[in-house]
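Predict the 3D structure for this chain.
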Amino acid sequence: MHERVIDVEDLRVRYRGARTDAVAGMTFGVAPGEVFGFLGPSGAGKSTVQRVLTRLLRGHGGRAAVFGRELHAWGADYYERIGVGFELPAAFGKLTAAENLAAFAGLYRRPARPVRELLELVELGAAADRRVDGFSKGMRMRLNLARALLNRPELLFLDEPTGGQDPVRAAALREVVREQARQGTTVFVTTHDMTTADRLCDRVAFVVGGRIAAVDTPRSFKLRYGRPGVRVEYRVGGRLDERELPLDTLAADTELAGLLARGAVETVHTREASLDDVFATVTRARL
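Done. Predicted structure below.
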């Protein structure tokens, strides 16, 4: 097994007529079975990198290799090993969900996963025989994910995988993707959604202005830039108030001890930096 599934060094892309690079010297690697996220605002270069790595955009500068082979050296066999689910769903509207997946399954040489099984996986089992032109955006996005998983990919590219979903379905889709990673699939995610980055990715790259500002695990980011402590809500004389206390002085705080002794404390919450806070600190920008 290769040490890195994706290996990128000094990647540069400039679109025709542009004065600056859309991707300005990015270097990163993605390990086997890792869920790696590109987090940044629109126009940061996230989708351009995905287009390079899926071989939809040629003529880049720098080095980009996948499965130990330079991208330019791959042929059609590359698409037998990867799955792609972009933010804008692509499907045949006059076909049913099941017919769509069956049509795409016929493009692969390797055996495809059972269509009905995939539709159940993304909570579209009940809509398997409905025409796609009647689907909501969220349903189309789930069909997009099912299509990306058809060929049992070793590497999965996803763009805004929870777009158009309610919180419950978004959590379910994140679990579907995590399960693919547990089975050994490497996942490359582009998103501007903090929850997706925080709860789905093993590591996250902050991307701004065509460059990578920082790379780390979501937890390490929050611990490094946060001030660990607790927020205490208490009621005195009928009035609800709150205090924020650092962990290192918590045990010696006599006022808190008194509030606890009188039964005045109503809630205690841990406090850490959100990924949004960390992104703003590191990049001086907010999503």
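The chain has a mean pLDDT of 93.
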